[in-house]
Write a structure and sequence with these properties.
34 strands; 672 residues; Rossmann fold; alpha/beta; five-stranded parallel beta sheet; 16 helices; disordered N terminus; FAD/NAD(P)-binding domain; 24% strand
Length: 672
């Protein structure tokens, strides 16, 4: 039997024949409520012609039960009473589709999360709530109408925002599969924060030795168009057909003519703080961020430049590459998929006055310590304390600065990497200065990754690093600029007063300061902690709720380098799978305009968060782009004339749920 022959025709006039399927979900549901009584209760509801129960409806056997009932013509609507539709609605919709029934003639009653899981100690209450959910699902199922998915073509190209380790790995994977990749990085070089690291834990590999070849690979890959010192300024369109505008900021140096010789640097009379060195060293107004930068051409920081013209002299810039009249360029590209790999910002500990950062010169952040330890950093890998440029004999780290201390102005979450990078830095310093005293104050050591626990234990046992469990209560500076620490060892239950030469704050990772701008441009969501939110934490960890847009690396949440790279490869794989199809289905949960009711007030257009509503100037009515619309319902609720209708969530369908819930109280004893 072909798909067309098997298709069951359902119209508005077709009498509903509803099948209700109650899942035991092991003991998640059956261990709290009587599933057999729920099955009998469902049979008492209008238009329910059969009801069945099974241990796991999502299993092959459970799905086949539904499929056989549809194919036998017993039912033309399906209600599954089980778990979250977020987890298994696609599963059961596919069952309907394979059996020849329109997949949108399906409704799910979530009696696990909404009834049994939250009422395990109240079986009677859980049973009544489960009845409510089944009754409301049946009420909606009676009014469901068949809907058809739309198919749109997909451009075989990907935009990746962010040129750190995650963005670069996604770009290379996609480029090797033959897809065109536009890699946009807002700074003059790719590499991200990993380029600032000296070594990586727990293997103590040279970070530059890992990332520099990868940067070169990106620059050489013919399918990657590298757009550094650029920003995405506008995104329109929808999955498979995004229209993106990229602003290429002016370098004020001809990037084609510049040879990267550096002859212009020394004559430049302007020195400013070097962002790459975190303020520990100066740079000139004309600069490259670091020696291994890719691309290796120079940029003029016009906010600092005094335009003295020295760099433009023929005896300074032989290729004549200086362009003081350089202007921004705008590039418009058509994109099939987008990957967000914007990375993170370090937590700023300045507001935490009790730790003295910004007041005492010998209080620094761990990322500044990273640059001091770097062989190509401001002191060539020989850390000194800022007050007198002498090597410190004693240093102390404080963990969880900006993490796990919401009440002190930090964040609720653990940043995951701080325990390990503090251990790494402490070990590095002990290797350079075996006679030094190194202390790490912590709440809990979180060594979660492969080889991390061994790395931590080795630091304590083989390097003599002192781990002290306890928060620091007070920090001040003595007359010699040493840092005096007052704390409590909570394991020994004794107070501690310790004087060290250098105090290092192990700061956490935060979402990018402009993450809200990216979220608005791409119509993606952010979680409570500010990072970009995945569609499902277990099943769709790299997808967003906006079709065709994926996330990778720390843009999604704090993680170490291996996890960032793994997620980058996952995002590349998801984007590749979508583009390989050539076309993509768009669910029909979009809003529809009733032309005869639309007054042309444009209220819906101003409120639409996805930019999916246009205005027909000739007819003076709103027009919904069904490919852009995500079915959020904002326009439907705001329309003053009732001209907006949401597919699958019409007024009739929602009112049927409400009316049935109010007018049909639960029938006791399973409806008998």
């Amino acid at each position: 039997m072909t798909e067309s022959e098997k298709k069951i025709k359902v119209t508005r006039k077709t009498r509903p024949k509803i099948g209700v399927y109650v899942c035991h979900c092991g003991i998640n549901i059956a261990g709290v409520v009587d599933v057999y009584a729920l099955k009998d209760y469902a049979l008492s509801l209008p238009d329910v012609v059969l009801a069945r129960e099974y241990k796991f409806m999502c299993s092959d056997n459970g799905q086949n039960i539904i499929k056989e009932d549809i194919e036998a013509g017993l039912i033309n609507r399906v209600v599954v009473s089980a778990c979250s539709p977020r987890m298994h609605e696609p599963t059961f919709r596919l069952v309907c589709k394979e059996a020849g029934l329109n997949q949108f003639l399906f409704e799910m009653a979530n009696i696990r999360e909404h009834a049994t899981w939250v009422n395990m100690n109240d079986t009677e209450g859980a049973y009544k709530i489960a009845q409510d959910h089944i009754r409301m699902a049946v009420a909606k199922a009676r009014t469901l109408l068949p809907l058809e998915v739309q198919k749109v073509s997909v451009e075989p190209s990907c935009l990746i925002i962010g040129g750190g380790i995650a963005g670069m790995n996604s770009a290379i994977d996609l480029a090797k599969e033959g897809y065109k990749v536009y890699l946009v990085e807002r700074t003059p070089t790719i590499g991200g924060h990993m380029a600032q690291l000296d070594k990586t834990f727990p293997t103590m590999d040279c970070s530059a030795c890992i990332i520099t070849p990868r940067m070169v690979d990106v620059a050489r890959e013919k399918n990657i168009e590298l757009l550094t010192y650029s920003e995405v300024v506008d995104v329109a369109g929808y999955v498979g057909n995004f229209e993106v505008t990229i602003m290429k900021k002016p370098h004020y140096i001809d990037q084609e003519a510049c040879t990267g010789c550096g002859a212009c640097v020394d004559p430049c009379p302007v020195s400013v703080g070097n962002e790459f060195e975190l303020g520990l060293a100066p740079r000139k107004a004309i600069y490259i961020p670091f020696p291994q930068a890719v691309p290796g051409e120079y940029t003029i920081d016009m906010e600092s430049c005094i335009q003295c013209g020295i760099c433009a002299r023929p005896d300074v810039c032989e290729p004549d590459a200086i362009r003081f009249d350089d202007k921004p360029e705008y590039l418009k590209v058509k994109i099939g998929t987008i990957i967000i790999a914007t990375g993170w910002d370090p937590y700023d500990p300045t507001p935490l006055k009790q730790y003295g950062y910004g007041r005492y010169p010998n209080v620094i952040t761990a990322f500044q310590m990273e640059r001091l330890l770097s062989s190509y950093g401001p002191v060539l890998g020989k850390p000194v304390r800022p007050s007198d440029l002498k090597a410190p004999h004693s240093i102390a780290f404080l963990q969880c600065v900006g993490s796990r201390n919401f009440r002190e102005g930090g964040n609720k979450y653990c940043s995951r990497v701080c325990c390990m990078y503090a251990t790494k830095q402490a070990r590095q310093y002990k290797e350079k200065h075996p006679e030094s005293e190194v202390y790490i104050f912590y709440m809990d050591i979180r060594a979660f990754g492969r080889g991390y626990e061994e790395f931590y234990e080795s630091a304590a046992e083989n390097y003599g690093i002192n781990y002290i469990r306890g928060r620091i209560a007070e920090v001040w500076e003595d007359k010699d600029h040493n840092i005096v620490i007052r704390a409590e060892d909570t394991l020994m239950q004794t107070p501690i007063e310790l004087t060290v030469d250098l105090f290092i704050l192990s700061i956490g990772l935060e979402a990018m300061a402009d993450a809200d701008k990216i979220a608005s441009l791409l119509s993606v969501q952010r979680s409570e902690d500010g990072f970009f939110m995945e569609a499902h934490p277990k099943l769709r960890p790299v997808d967003t709720l906006t079709d065709g847009i994926f996330i990778a690396g720390v843009a999604q949440g704090p993680k170490d380098i291996p996890d960032a790279v793994a997620q980058a490869k996952g995002a590349a794989s998801s984007a590749s799978a979508l583009m390989a199809q050539g076309e993509v289905e768009i669910e029909p949960y979009y809003a529809v305009v009733l032309d005869h009711l639309c007054s042309g007030c444009r209220t819906c257009q101003s409120l639409c968060p996805f930019g999916a509503i246009d205005f027909d100037e000739f007819k003076k009515i709103a027009v919904v782009n069904s490919a852009l619309c995500k079915g959020c319902g904002t326009c439907v609720s705001a329309c003053p004339s009732g001209a907006m209708v949401q597919n699958h969530f019409t007024d009739i369908q929602l009112n049927s749920i409400i009316n049935f819930a109010v007018k049909q109280p639960p029938i006791e004893n399973g409806g008998k």
